[in-house]
């Protein structure tokens, strides 16, 4: 149900409407349907069933003043750039924690890094064409660094493919449409949780990912003792192994919090891999496979390293847990965590905190 | 308006469930409709609690395998689903991911590799099998518990993974069971042992609770141990998984509810023999006991399973065999024979240990008592018996010793000569050994 139309005097100026429409088009391309629905529902705008419906309903709401720039900015702050990331997790040592005070960070931003212009800045709604550090802030006590980029992406459009005969040869031309992707790279150090995370949106394939990591490391190095931070990097091999082991059902915990969809355990030059065919099931949901897995107890697990796996954190809304199931993939190589779904900040930190308990 | 049900419509259409295994009746019905080895394999897979089926998992031809699975899906026992995969990296895709032009994992365009792969699978949602971590076996009185070794062997060889069985032995007890202090000592020893085993198991990565099988007086010890555990602090309590009782001598009105509510046990199976002649005596000889091993427990806290015609130790016998579902055959080693113990283990106890709780009601031969148990008058409940029996036993031993002593007194001179000669020979032998030892040692 749409809200009542705004009076003509309440309508945003035409340039804001134009900006908002451009922003809406970008958002719809980037954001998961679930989050767009939440925005529309919160603003009492008709939802629809697919992205075309979302776009037309959003446009209509913008034109009649039911959706303003502030609404979108607040909403983006909560959901944009969370999830669908590659994350590197770090334990914050006591030494580093002592070193990360607002006064010291502020001084380093101003004097050492000369990044005063981004201190405490809001992230920008229009993304720059090249990756740029747009905000450094320290509050709650969380140190936040944000890089934004409107990077080009390519999507295949098979309908536009065509073939051309040149002489005796036939050439096939395959069409790819260019689109702008709003990507956010983040670094957050949650001193209260004792955890920090570097979140890279760029795919692991290609050199964009490496460049983004290198840039983030450079700036982080200006603000804190980077080697101390990196010494505390979470060993994903151990996390992956323990996460799998501790979530095999027992008669005390017949329905564990985490479902292992896939897990690979390596010992020397050989490995065993347990995997479910379906993306939403655990391998141990098949009784015979569960039996095999249960034969390895925690005491024998020292002989194995986790190479990685896909794990589904189950929804436990009643007990303060996640409101929906979320899938993460762990890679021991590179000590990397892939957050598959688009999430909000609370969901991401809930998962990272849980992961850190499996070290 | 709903049309009247057709008399010709198959009886099972839409009546199945995705969360339970189809009953035997369903397979018999299906065998009449689509007999053959595909059906046999499917039933086998279903009984093994598989959650996913595909035509390629059944014997060829694939076309009839698909028809069979469709048939079972129509009846409601399976759900037909399309599964989508990335043609490049084989990632299983959800609906949203498959709707995108390229794979979120490898970033390859689906179209470049022939499009998203779609396969048909048949799924159901049986709850995972219950995990059995480790097991404790407690024997009865007047026995060394030979069945414990056989039980441990069956568990070890048929489970598919290592399930340690702690065989608890408290020794040969006959008269001791009627004495309260002796029972208390045995109960305390059992508790100490179980606590030590729990700590050891936990330290070695066995994080689950142990399941227990107990027989005869072992059931009394276990029941009273659990009863006393309730009074301890929560963190000190011993906790168990599922409990199997055979030849049980606990009172049929034993308070299992309090024990279960306290979380000390998950479920209890009482396998009783309709011809158990021993357990009715327990009530008159052992205080706070009763014939639950012959008639079952009252109330709804315990799964009572009746073994018609079986006596006190018959369920655990490894000398008697079952052939073609008929018991009490002496085992000769022929093919097709299984000992009573193995038969009951496979048919009742193993399913009891592994089935999810919601499916336990499907265990066969469940028969609850028809009337509430009434205990005997106070003086006949094992209260007076020890004070009568114990002096009688002691006096009998004294008389026996006196009789033997008097007989031996007549031959004391002969005994003295034999003792003198053999004693001298023993001394000489020891001296010779000592000398030989010294020579060898040089």
Summarize the entry for a quick read.
The complex is a heterodimer of chains A (359) and B (442). Chain A has 359 residues and is an alpha+beta fold. Chain A is built from 11 helices and 12 strands.
Oligomer: heterodimer
Instruction: Quickly count the helices of chain A.
Output: 11
Question: Which class best fits the helix and strand makeup of chain B?
Answer: alpha/beta
Strand order of the largest sheet of chain B: 6-5-7-8-9-10
Helix content of chain B: 25-40%
Whole-number average pLDDT of chain A? 85
Distance between the termini of chain B: 111 Å
The CATH topology of the largest domain in chain B is what? Answer: Rossmann fold
Distance between the termini of chain A: 48 Å
Q: What percent of residues of chain B are in strands?
A: 5-15%
Q: Give the CATH superfamily of the largest domain in chain B.
A: Alpha/Beta hydrolase fold, catalytic domain
- The total beta strand count of chain B reads 13
Instruction: Tell me how many strands of chain A there are.
Output: 12
Q: What count of domains describes the coordinates of chain A?
A: 3
List the helices and strands of chain A in order: HHHHEHHEEEEEEHHHEEHEEEH
Poorly predicted sequence stretches spanning 5 or more consecutive residues of chain B: 1-8
User: What is the correct CATH architecture of the largest domain in chain B?
Assistant: 3-Layer(aba) Sandwich
Indicate the proportion of strand residues of chain A: 25-35%
């Amino acid at each position: 149900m749409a809200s009542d139309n705004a009076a003509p005097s309440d309508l945003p100026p035409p340039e804001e409407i134009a900006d908002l429409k451009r922003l809406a088009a970008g958002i719809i391309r980037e954001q998961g349907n679930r989050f767009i629905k939440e925005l529309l529902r919160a603003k009492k705008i008709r939802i629809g069933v697919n992205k075309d419906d979302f776009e037309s309903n959003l446009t209509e709401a913008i034109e009649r003043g039911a959706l303003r720039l502030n609404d979108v900015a607040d909403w983006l702050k909560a959901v944009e750039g969370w999830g669908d990331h590659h994350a590197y997790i770090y334990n914050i040592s006591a030494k580093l924690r002592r070193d990360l005070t607002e006064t010291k960070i502020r001084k380093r931003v101003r004097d050492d890094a000369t990044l005063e212009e981004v201190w405490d800045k809001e992230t920008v709604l229009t993304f720059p064409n090249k990756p740029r550090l747009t905000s450094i802030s320290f509050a709650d006590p969380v140190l936040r660094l944000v890089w934004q980029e409107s990077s080009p992406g390519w999507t295949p459009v098979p309908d536009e493919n065509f073939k051309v005969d040149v002489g005796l040869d036939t050439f096939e031309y395959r069409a790819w449409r260019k689109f702008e992707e709003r990507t956010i790279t983040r670094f957050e150090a949650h001193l209260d949780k004792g955890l920090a995370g570097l979140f890279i949106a760029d795919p692991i394939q290609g050199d964009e990912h490496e460049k983004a990591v290198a840039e983030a490391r450079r700036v982080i190095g200006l603000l804190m003792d980077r080697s101390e931070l990196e010494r505390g990097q979470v060993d994903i091999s151990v996390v992956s192994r323990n996460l799998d082991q501790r979530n095999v059902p027992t008669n005390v915990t017949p329905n564990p919090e985490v479902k292992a969809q896939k897990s690979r355990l390596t010992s020397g030059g050989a490995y065993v891999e347990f995997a479910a065919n379906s993306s939403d099931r655990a391998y141990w949901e098949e009784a015979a496979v569960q039996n095999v897995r249960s034969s390895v107890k925690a005491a024998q697990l020292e002989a194995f390293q986790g190479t990685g796996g896909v794990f589904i954190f189950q929804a436990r809304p009643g007990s303060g847990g996640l409101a929906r199931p979320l899938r993460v993939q762990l890679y021991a190589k590179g000590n990397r965590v892939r957050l598959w779904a688009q999430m909000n900040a609370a969901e991401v930190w809930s998962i990272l905190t849980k992961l850190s308990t499996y070290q | 308006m709903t049309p009247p049900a057709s008399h010709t419509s198959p009886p099972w259409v839409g009546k199945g469930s995705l969360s339970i295994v189809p009953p035997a009746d369903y397979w018999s019905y299906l065998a009449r409709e689509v007999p053959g080895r595909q059906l046999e394999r499917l039933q086998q897979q279903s009984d093994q609690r598989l959650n996913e089926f595909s035509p390629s998992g059944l014997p060829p031809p694939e076309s009839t395998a698909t028809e069979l699975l469709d048939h079972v899906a129509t009846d409601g026992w399976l759900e037909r689903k399309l599964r989508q995969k990335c043609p490049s990296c084989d990632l299983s895709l959800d609906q949203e991911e498959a709707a995108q032009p390229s794979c979120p994992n490898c970033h390859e365009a689906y179209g470049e590799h022939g499009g998203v792969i779609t396969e048909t699978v048949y799924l159901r949602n049986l709850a995972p099998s219950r995990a059995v971590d480790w097991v404790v076996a407690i024997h009865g009185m007047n026995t060394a518990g030979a069945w414990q070794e056989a039980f441990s062997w069956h568990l070890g060889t048929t489970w598919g993974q290592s399930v340690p069985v702690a065989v608890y032995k408290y020794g040969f007890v006959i008269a001791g069971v009627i004495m309260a202090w002796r029972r208390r000592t045995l109960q305390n020893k059992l508790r100490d042992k179980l606590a030590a085993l729990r700590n050891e198991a936990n330290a070695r990565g066995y994080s689950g609770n142990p399941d227990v099988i107990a027989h005869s007086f072992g059931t009394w010890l276990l029941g009273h141990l659990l009863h006393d555990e309730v009074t301890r602090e929560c963190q000190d309590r011993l906790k168990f998984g599922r409990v199997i009782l055979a030849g049980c001598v606990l009172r049929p009105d034993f308070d299992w509810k309090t024990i279960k509510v306290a979380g000390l046990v998950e479920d209890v199976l009482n396998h009783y023999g309709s011809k158990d002649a021993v357990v009715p005596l327990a009530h008159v000889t052992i205080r706070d006991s009763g014939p639950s091993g012959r008639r079952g427990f009252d109330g709804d806290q315990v799964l009572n399973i009746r073994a018609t015609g079986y006596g006190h130790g018959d369920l655990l016998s490894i000398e008697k065999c079952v052939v073609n579902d008929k018991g009490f055959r002496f085992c000769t080693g022929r093919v097709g024979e299984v000992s009573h113990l193995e038969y009951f283990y496979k048919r009742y106890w193993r399913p009891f240990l592994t089935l999810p709780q919601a499916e336990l009601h499907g265990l066969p031969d469940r028969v609850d008592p028809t009337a509430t148990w009434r205990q005997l008058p106070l003086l006949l409940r094992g209260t007076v018996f020890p004070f009568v029996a114990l002096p009688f036993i002691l006096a009998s031993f004294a008389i026996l010793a006196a009789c033997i002593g008097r007989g031996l007194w007549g031959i004391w001179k002969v005994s003295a000569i034999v003792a003198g000669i053999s004693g001298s020979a023993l001394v000489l032998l020891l001296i010779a050994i000592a000398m030989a030892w010294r020579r060898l040692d040089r």
